TrEMBL record:
SUPFAM superfamilies per the UniProt record, alphabetical: P-loop containing nucleoside triphosphate hydrolases
Alphabetized UniProt keyword annotations: ATP-binding, Cell cycle, Cell division, Cell membrane, Membrane, Nucleotide-binding
Gene that encodes the chain: ftsE
Presence of keyword S-adenosyl-L-methionine: no
Phylogenetic lineage: Bacteria, Bacillati, Bacillota, Clostridia, Lachnospirales
Subcellular locations according to the entry: Cell membrane
Name under which the protein is recorded: Cell division ATP-binding protein FtsE
Membrane topology designation: Peripheral membrane protein
Organism whose genome encodes this protein: Hungatella effluvii
Entry-linked Pfam families: ABC_tran
Length: 228
C-alpha cells in the first residue's frame, strides 16, 4: 500500500530531516514509527500527506506515484487518508456532532449521508450520548475520540496519527490505542508516530525506529491482545 524508496528531505534551512528512507507498508498493517524529537517522524507523515515534497526519492501510495501527481488531484488523494493530531484540532464553536460532520461537508456529502454516518461513527468511538457536547465539555481522551471519528468518517484506506496520545494520561492513552487497534482489525492501515516506548511495548506491533533522519531498526512483534 505504501512504498518509500531512497527518500531524502532537506529543508531550506539546511536541516536534513530524512536520509535514504526505504519503507514498505502492506495493506492492513499497524505500524509504529518511534524516535526522539527531531528524528524525522513527523516529516515522514507530511510527505505522505503531500504537505511537503521530498528532495529526492520516490513515494508510492496505492500504486500512485506522489511525485507525479498533478496538484489538482491532491485534495482527492487526501480524502483517502485519515489524519489524527496530538492537539485534536477540534472546532471549539461546534458540538461533537458538527465536528465530525464537518469532514463530510468539506467533500460535499449529502445531508442524508451525514445523518446516517455521523451517529454510526460516534457510536463506534463511544460518544453517542455526547453528540451535543462542545469540545471544552469533554475530557482529553474524549476529544481525541472525536478527532478519530472525524478522521474516519470518510472511510479512509490509511489512518495516520501524529502523537495521538501525547496530551493524554496513561489510562486514556491505552484506551485510544485499543480503539486504533479495533479500527485496524476492521481493515484500515494504521501508522502511528509516537515517542512512547511504553505504548509500543504493550501493543506489540511492527515498530520502525528512527534517529537523526534515518531508520535504525524495523521490527515485527507479536500481536496485541486486550488481556495484556
Amino acid at each position: 500500500m505504501i512504498e518509500l524508496w531512497n527518500v531524502n528531505k532537506t529543508y531550506e534551512t539546511g536541516n536534513k530531516a530524512l536520509r535514504n528512507i526505504n519503507i514498505t507498508v502492506e495493506d492492513g498493517e499497524f505500524v509504529f514509527i518511534i524516535g526522539r524529537s527531531g528524528s524525522g517522524k513527523s516529516t515522514l507523515l507530511k510527505l505522505l500527506l503531500k504537505e511537503v515534497e521530498p528532495t529526492s526519492g520516490k513515494i508510492i501510495v496505492n500504486d500512485m506515484n506522489l511525485g507525479k501527481m498533478p496538484r489538482r488531484y491532491i485534495p482527492k488523494y487526501r480524502r483517502r487518508l485519515g489524519m489524527i493530531f496530538q492537539d485534536f484540532r477540534l472546532l471549539k464553536d461546534r458540538n461533537v456532532y458538527e465536528n465530525v460532520a464537518f469532514a463530510q461537508r468539506v467533500i460535499g456529502a449529502s445531508a442524508r449521508s451525514i445523518r446516517e454516518s455521523v451517529p454510526t461513527m460516534l457510536t463506534m468511538v463511544g460518544l453517542s450520548s455526547k453528540y451535543k457536547f462542545y469540545p471544552q465539555q469533554l475530557s482529553g481522551g474524549e476529544q481525541q475520540r472525536v478527532a478519530i471519528a472525524r478522521a474516519l468518517i470518510n472511510r479512509p484506506e490509511i489512518l495516520l496519527a501524529d502523537e495521538p496520545t501525547g496530551n493524554l494520561d496513561g489510562h486514556n492513552s491505552m484506551e485510544i490505542m485499543k480503539l486504533l487497534d479495533e479500527i485496524n482489525k476492521r481493515g484500515t492501515t494504521v501508522i502511528v508516530v509516537t515517542h512512547s516506548h511504553e505504548i509500543v511495548d504493550r501493543m506489540k506491533r511492527r515498530v520502525i525506529t528512527m534517529d537523526r533522519g534515518t531508520i535504525v531498526s524495523d521490527e515485527k512483534k507479536g500481536g496485541y491482545t486486550h488481556e495484556d
